[in-house]
Design brief:
By secondary structure, this protein is an alpha/beta fold. The chain has 4 helices and 4 strands, in the order E-E-E-H-H-H-E-H. The chain has one domain. 37% of the residues lie in helices and 14% in strands. A 4-stranded parallel sheet has the order 1-4-2-3, covered by helices on one side. Helix 2 packs across helix 4.
């Protein structure tokens, strides 16, 4: 099983990152394409959920639950993402919140998938 890491896209890359995959729906401002290996936008939260989370006051638990529902049916894409590397897999996100973001939820879903 690949080691799954979560990192903000604006942080410097390092060799320990392994395969770097952007998991946001929108391309982050000012980021060059050579900073990532893949853009898995199909695994990002829907535009509706993303907007509601950033524009509303619903809490992270609600976001997490709704995003997990959105990820149902994407098991093939998630397995493909896990199988795309022999080393670490780093999920990249643009949010300023380092602990409550879509990449942490996706990492949890990927971990559950491999168990």
């Amino acid at each position: 099983m690949a080691e799954i890491r979560v990192k903000r896209i604006y942080e410097d890359s390092s060799p320990e990152d392994g395969r770097r995959v952007l998991v946001d729906r929108l391309w982050p401002r000012g980021v060059k394409k050579d900073r990532i290996d893949e853009w898995a936008k199909e695994l990002a939260p829907s535009n509706e959920l993303r907007r509601e989370f950033h524009d509303s006051d619903f809490d992270f638990d609600e976001f997490r639950a709704r995003y997990m529902v959105e990820l149902e049916g994407h098991e093939d894409e998630m397995r493909q993402l896990l199988g795309s590397t022999d080393g670490p897999l780093t999920l990249l996100f643009g949010s300023r919140n380092l602990e409550q973001n879509n990449a942490t939820v996706l990492a949890e879903a990927l971990g559950d998938l491999t168990v």
